[in-house]
Amino acid sequence: MIIKQRYKKLWILSRKIFNSYFLSLALTLTLNIKTKKFKRNIEDFTCSECGFFVEGNGYTNHCPKCLWSKHVDINPGDRKSDCLGSMEPTGVEVKAGEYVITHQCIKCGFVRKNKTTKDDDFNLLLNL
Ligand SMILES: [Zn+2]
Ligand SMILES: [Zn+2]
Fold first, then answer.
1. Is residue 65 domain-shared with residue 99, that is, in the same domain?
2. Which of 36, 44, 51, 64 could link 119 by a cystine bridge, Cβ 3.0 to 4.6 Å?
3. pLDDT per residue over 31-81, tens digit each?
4. 73 alpha carbon, closest ligand
5. Is 66 in a helix, a strand, or coil?
6. How many domains does the chain divide into?
7. Which domain holds residue 111?
8. Distance from the alpha carbon of residue 90 to the mean position of ligand 2, in angstroms
9. CA separation, residue 89 to residues 47, 70, 95 (Å)
């Protein structure tokens, strides 16, 4: 009789461990989906500066024709800023072999550095 009770306790304990394991697994999965959403944000937009239609690739954050950007992120990719001011390209620097544009919001002064893409107007880039 005592042995049976012990088994019952053990059974309840293992059920608890099992349940919490699945709960944490489900949580991890949810977090992963959220992270994916955070990183890739495919969207097309029309440049508010020059009117060029920019096809989004998930990482697009500025217009390749005039290099202007829009203040939509607080942290890269989160689209959480409600400023929506135009961001002027104020300078360019080379970092680890890559060109990085400095954008400054003309509405609130927020400064952000953005990697360039192969589609960016290279002549314009060099003249910054
Ligand atoms: Zn543009
Ligand atoms: Zn701003």
1. yes
2. 64
3. 665 555 444 556 788 898 999 998 877 667 899 999 999 999 888 888 899
4. 2
5. coil
6. 2
7. 45-126
8. 14
9. 14, 10, 16
